[in-house]
Design brief:
three-stranded antiparallel β-sheet, alpha+beta, about 45% helix, single chain, about 300 residues
């Protein structure tokens, strides 16, 4: 039976597997779609371990809030195409629920949890088998509010970036939390207040500034004053409260000014920012080459 490009496209849409894998599966079973699905699963399970060394830097951050508790969880895959797959989305959603309920200590404990009669690792392997890509649970964070803080979550680009904030104050609403979450998503602060910036970070910046100005010809005492100013600016840029508030179109207010307007007693207790694939060297796909290979 002749296998058409439309057949391959249909199978890929149903499974999320790669085009070449779908083409091979259909050829092996003479075009029978159900048998092709079974073939992909068997082949995928056999090769799941081999995929372990592949780069999975795409995916989504899944989030859940249940009263005073919340979770952020990053589930990775190899391509953005798979990150939009319904089965991938359902798995990530179930993992977030399970992690929030069980509160495991680390990823290894998560993978041992039961999910619908199988371990989570087995569930992930089953999806790898069908999709044909490496899928991995990279990290998670479960947070319980403290001191009466209000927990909010802001999701950017459908889960490519997610920010959890906890802010105390009688007038702090979810909208305020999401506004601060948007700020954190856009500006990536590392600290809440510039008084928290580590000595190591300041020393590293100071060394860089001095290296840049070593041939300026300025006296040492002048250089020292310049460095002090630059370090203060650096600390402010790295700190949430001292950053310019992104929703202030006039550019005059800082985040701390916005919070004071909302509630004079407002206090940012903590924040967590997850961005999919940060720190992972992403692979470079050549889609045109993939299509050319399929046509052969």
């Amino acid at each position: 039976m002749a296998i058409t490009a439309q057949d391959v496209k249909t199978l890929r849409e149903q499974t999320g597997a790669g085009m070449m894998d779908c083409k091979k599966a259909l050829q092996e079973v003479n075009g029978d779609f159900q048998e092709a699905l079974d073939f992909l699963k068997k082949q995928g399970l056999a090769n799941a371990e081999k995929k372990g060394s592949r780069i999975a830097a795409e995916g989504l951050v899944f989030t859940k809030i249940n009263g005073s508790e919340a979770v952020l969880l990053e589930l990775n895959c190899e391509t953005d195409f798979v990150a939009k797959n319904d089965d991938f989305l359902k798995l990530g959603d179930k993992l977030a629920d399970q992690v929030l309920a069980a509160k495991p200590a680390n990823v290894d404990e998560v993978l041992k949890l039961d999910l619908e009669g199988e371990s989570i690792q087995e569930k992930i392997n089953s999806l790898i088998a069908v999709i044909g890509e490496k899928i991995s649970l990279r990290r998670f964070e479960v947070v319980t509010s403290t001191d009466g803080g209000n927990i909010s979550i802001y999701n950017h680009q459908g889960g490519k970036i997610a920010v959890l904030t906890e802010i105390s104050g009688d007038k702090i609403t979810d909208e305020v939390g999401k506004n601060i979450g948007m700020q954190i998503a856009a500006m990536s602060p590392r600290y809440i207040d510039k008084s928290e910036v580590s000595t190591a970070d300041l020393e590293q910046e100071k060394a860089m500034f001095l290296e840049q100005m070593k041939d300026s010809g300025k006296p040492a005492e002048i250089l020292e004053k310049i460095v002090v100013g630059k370090l203060d600016k650096f600390a402010g840029e790295m700190s949430l409260l001292q950053q310019p508030y992104v929703k202030d179109m006039g550019g005059k207010n800082k985040v701390q000014d916005y919070l004071k307007e909302v509630d004079s007693a407002a206090k940012v207790i903590q924040f967590i920012r997850y961005e999919v694939g940060e720190g992972i060297e992403k692979r470079q796909d050549d889609f045109a080459e993939e299509v050319a290979k399929m046509a052969k």
